[in-house]
Amino acid sequence: QVQLVESGGGLVQAGGSLRLSCAASGRSFSTYAMNWFRQAPGKEREFVAGISWTWSGARTDYADSVKGRFTISRDNAKNTVYLQMNSLKPEDTAVYYCNTGSHWGQGTQVTVSS
After folding, report:
1. Measured between alpha carbons, how far is 91 from 93 in angstroms, rounded to an integer?
2. pLDDT tens for each residue of 40-93
3. Torsions phi, psi for 102 (to 5 deg)
């Protein structure tokens, strides 16, 4: 059974940093695309960042709102994907979800105070 477990969320002041982790189990995800989404109160879930493999190597994609501030990475040996979030803004406040295919984690809350 596939499981995705997020951790690393919390409360941080604007301008601060957090690193989210998503530990995957149930199979190896080394060749699967892994994504981070987020959902703020009263808003739809939105794509934040993704990492996948192409013939030329790893490919990363970011939402325009987080480019230059967030970095997605993965450790295949640990079956874990990370989201390094720097220069956080209050509008980054949301529940952050890890995703691969049809599988979702339970989410981790990130709150950025102004």
Report:
1. 5
2. 999 999 999 999 987 888 899 999 999 999 999 999 889 999 999 999 999 999
3. -95, 10
**CA triplet 58, 59, 62: central angle to 5 degrees?**
140
Pairwise CA distance, residues 72 & 52, whole Å: 10
Q: Which two tokens stand for residue 74?
A: 């993965």
Q: Which two tokens stand for residue 56?
A: 């030329």
Partners of 53 in the β-ladder: 58
Q: What is the mean pLDDT of residues 106-111?
A: 98
Token digits of residue 67? 């480019």
Residue holding tokens 């989410």? 107
The answer to whether the CB of 59 falls within 8 A of the CB of 77 is no
Handedness of CA 102, 108, 110, 111 (dihedral sign): positive
Q: How far is CA 45 from CA 53, 59, 75, in A?
A: 24, 22, 25
Q: Reply yes or no on whether the pLDDT at 28 is more than 80.
A: no
In the prediction, which pLDDT does 88 show?
98
